[in-house]
Amino acid sequence: MWLKPEEVLLKNALKLWLMERSNDYFVLQRRRGYEEEGGGGLTGLLVGTLDSVLDSTAKVAPFRILHQTPDSQVYLSIACGANREEITKHWDWLEQNIMKTLSVFDSNEDITNFVQGKIRGLIAEEGKHSFAKEDDPEKFREALLKFEKCFGLPEQEKLVTYYSCSYWKGRVPCQGWLYLSTNFLSFYSFLLGSEIKLIISWDEVSKLEKTSNVILTESIHVCSQGENHYFSMFLHINKTYLLMEQLANYAIRRLFDKETFDNDPVLYNPLQITKRGLESRAHSEQFNAFFRLPKGESLKEVHECFLWVPFSHFNTHGKMCISENYICFASQDGNHCSVIIPLRELPISSESTDPSDNFEVQSLTSQKECSKTVSTEALMTVFHPQNLETLNSKMLKEKMKEQSWKILFAECGRGVSMFRTKKTRDLVVRGIPETLRGELWMLFSGAVNDMATNPGYYAEVVEQSLGTSNLATEEIERDLRRSLPEHPAFQSDTGISALRRVLTAYAYRNPKIGYCQAMNILTSVLLLYAKEEEAFWLLVAVCERMLPDYFNRRIIGALVDQAVFEELIRDHLPQLTEHMTDMTFFSSVSLSWFLTLFISVLPIESAVNVVDCFFYDGIKSILQLGLAILDYNLDKLLTCKDDAEAVTALNRFFDNVTNKDSPLPSNVQQGSNMSDEKTSLTRVDITDLIRESNEKYGNIRYEDIHSMRYRNRLYVIQTLEETTKQNVLRVVSQDVNLSLRELDELYVIFKKELFLSCYWCLGCPVLKHHDPSLPYLEQYQIDCQQFRALYHLLSPWAHSANRDSLALWTFRLLDENSDCLINFKEFSSAIDIMYNGSFTEKIKLLFKMHIPPAYTEVKSKDASKGDELSKEELLYFSQLHVSKPANEKEAESAKHSLEKGKGKIDIQAYLSQWQDELFKKEENIKDLPRMNQSQFIQFSKTLYNLFHEDPEEESLYQAIAVVTSLLLRMEEVGRKLHSPTSSAKGFSDTVCASGRSSEEKTGSHLEKDPSSLREEPQWSFAFEQILASLLNEPALVRFFEKPIDVKATLENAKTSQLRSRTKMQIP
């Protein structure tokens, strides 16, 4: 690697470097201790330690080239190399291209300037294609070289950043370097002869958190595959942790959670990920979440400033955040004052001439009618119009609330750019008036911005989605009448039709989510207070921003927030944690709280107050309310003996939550319909409960929740993956002889190979093979390319010269439905036979690999590669169709259509298939088709290849020659009984002429003259004939019954799996 020329004092450097080559202008040196026996003694150990600790790779590369000028003690370092081959290449280039030119110059100064300019030009040329785009490119290039040298990862692995830190091995800290790349967390340390090299895949990380204890003041804890790793002594631990969090989340989403990754093109290309980009992305996500802005907004600038608050007549200190379409301000504490100003609301922009850099903006406060709507009235105004002539105490309180908001609007403005202050929050906690609820929900949720920037969108989607029929629309129709059935609005066609349109339009807009139960309950409440189009955009805000990943197949978002809730319970209610030994109780109880925002458990008149707070404070308000509910019922929960009793206590509590100020008619209110027995219990007003939740738990910060969501997302997804694995192992273990531990390790290797195929590929089709909605066995499937890599690692027959062909035929044999994918059950069945199968089972596997549909003639286009197949050839042959008998073809077609159908699910067909599998009989060897001439020739070649380099190689060759001779003679005798000509005589005589026993003798005849045999009538063998002949040879039986050390094979495969990728051509 060429280096930016830097001065080196050769006098001091000679103690650490040895001269290898030199001429008048350049010196090639080798690092002391490198390529020396014993590491160069004590000096070598000390040098190695320095190389690990120092911050310059120019000092630690084992080779370097210096530019020297005569009669000077100062040299310039211009190149370094990780190995002799690399540095020699640079040296040869200098001698061929530079040395001749230098003789032209008259002065040493001109020579030095020329060399410096040439080297800088080479570096600039390299930089055009380099991944290094950091603040200090030269330093980053050096770190990149050390990263590649230490870990030997493929060139496509993108180094994002690196840090000096300590890794705690037991109680001893080891100083070294932490490298963060797109797919791996890597650490390297070399101290006094002790080398530590650690590589952790981001997709294996189940826990990532900042911790502190007596020994470690502050450290980063990484848990991977049950092992704990601690890193400390960072210069900027918060920045380091933020980047690690981003990279781990990126890997998790890319590999496990494709539903959300597909909607995020920013992270689609791993080679474009940079430290600066990740930091910017993290800040933008927090910015959008805090101010409820559309997902596409990117934070451009942040400035500390003072905001003049006109109604209070004072300046408040905070930060101004600027994006493409918004200017936002939040006071220092985040709660005192905040403002959101859409640039679309600024008709006038005037430059300030005041030298103090103050400026004033005047926003539009009028709501623009810029979109078409299907229904222009909220259902509440249609079904419960307020009667001003019959004002009761509740209606008077409602009017007082409205007046309070009007006063606030007069002070703080009305509309999207209003000032949001502590007074705003207090009014929200008291409950938003019925007439303002829809408007303020739109404002606080940010849905008003979505609707304003997408005029006419809802009407178009409704029109396009009309008449569509799919699984989502069927589920919507089924649930329409279950959405607030007691409310008059949803006992009429008006409400039902509006609900149908909103849900169908959203399913059309976002087919990844489509429709999920609980969406109908939430949407019905939205329609009560908002116009139809507004309800649609509120649903968009909830599903895509405020409750991300809640409404997909695995409800990952809800599970993540439940894990956050459990963490908050441990922090704020420790006595409850001690009593409830199983924390999963809180998850099972609170799932409906999060999915429906308490609508499903609270009376409607109380639930809408919770929704008020949710749109203002987001998930923070739901978490706070959950804590307040548990705190209120703490004494009862501590006396409960089991989960059922605790659930009953909470349900009774919810039944007694009321809203004494609700203006809803009594026939709509659910809390007023309680029986006389229940009225004797203590009533709890929802306003008091919400106020208490704010007072006790209002100190929970948005930033902390955001961080906890990230942290717990890793845990939740890894837990789901572990559940998938355990279910797969439980099913597969019934059909194989491998132990559960061996199956576990095999599954890890299987899944890792799939992921390794995705690491360095853009738009890798492998990602499409992961579908969490499928049955456990079908969630992860590999194609022929991945199977070949696993076959090379795991198969005891992988040393064969035609191993690529064997891998191909095995894959085709396992791929019964011809979709060019196999699952873990199919994969493990083949590996199990190779490891634990009897002699008969192994021969039957080989036999079936050499007959259709598995067998196909294979020939590489590149003769120089021998039997090795390229990726394209492998995929071509794996997809090659081989005709089958009509009855088999029909059965396969039915099975294929069953598995691939994405429309309606035929339950009867699934039950029939399941029954067939249950009563599946052991395959009878008599049912196997006969092996024809060309197939038998290839079968014989395969056996010869398997025996190569075996200790009993010679006796095995003799045995197979005897078997082939015997089989051909049997065929010859059989043909003589039916025909006077002998079709197998030529081959038989060749094999048995003089008891030939080598592969070269017998195999050569098979290769040289197969056409002469084909000219004769075709002959074939049954499996029983081949098996009986092979059983007569003890050497063959010993070879196939030789025990295999499964544990050692799996361990070796795990350690070499990543290393093997560097030798493969990565697309």
Automatic annotation (TrEMBL):
<dbReference type="Pfam" id="PF00566">
    <property type="entry name" value="RabGAP-TBC"/>
</dbReference>
<dbReference type="InterPro" id="IPR011993">
    <property type="entry name" value="PH-like_dom_sf"/>
</dbReference>
<dbReference type="InterPro" id="IPR036012">
    <property type="entry name" value="TBC1D8B_PH-GRAM1"/>
</dbReference>
<dbReference type="InterPro" id="IPR004182">
    <property type="entry name" value="GRAM"/>
</dbReference>
<feature type="domain" description="EF-hand">
    <location>
        <begin position="802"/>
        <end position="837"/>
    </location>
</feature>
<feature type="domain" description="Rab-GAP TBC">
    <location>
        <begin position="431"/>
        <end position="618"/>
    </location>
</feature>
<keyword id="KW-0677">Repeat</keyword>
<comment type="function">
    <text>Involved in vesicular recycling, probably as a RAB11B GTPase-activating protein.</text>
</comment>
<dbReference type="InterPro" id="IPR000195">
    <property type="entry name" value="Rab-GAP-TBC_dom"/>
</dbReference>
<dbReference type="GO" id="GO:0005829">
    <property type="term" value="C:cytosol"/>
</dbReference>
<dbReference type="GO" id="GO:0005096">
    <property type="term" value="F:GTPase activator activity"/>
</dbReference>
<dbReference type="InterPro" id="IPR002048">
    <property type="entry name" value="EF_hand_dom"/>
</dbReference>
<feature type="compositionally biased region" description="Basic and acidic residues">
    <location>
        <begin position="997"/>
        <end position="1013"/>
    </location>
</feature>
<dbReference type="InterPro" id="IPR011992">
    <property type="entry name" value="EF-hand-dom_pair"/>
</dbReference>
<dbReference type="Pfam" id="PF02893">
    <property type="entry name" value="GRAM"/>
</dbReference>
<feature type="region of interest" description="Disordered">
    <location>
        <begin position="978"/>
        <end position="1013"/>
    </location>
</feature>
<keyword id="KW-0963">Cytoplasm</keyword>
<protein>
    <recommendedName>
        <fullName>TBC1 domain family member 8B</fullName>
    </recommendedName>
</protein>
<keyword id="KW-0343">GTPase activation</keyword>
<dbReference type="InterPro" id="IPR035969">
    <property type="entry name" value="Rab-GAP_TBC_sf"/>
</dbReference>
<dbReference type="GO" id="GO:0005509">
    <property type="term" value="F:calcium ion binding"/>
</dbReference>
<comment type="subunit">
    <text>Interacts (via domain Rab-GAP TBC) with RAB11B (in GTP-bound form).</text>
</comment>
<dbReference type="GO" id="GO:0003094">
    <property type="term" value="P:glomerular filtration"/>
</dbReference>
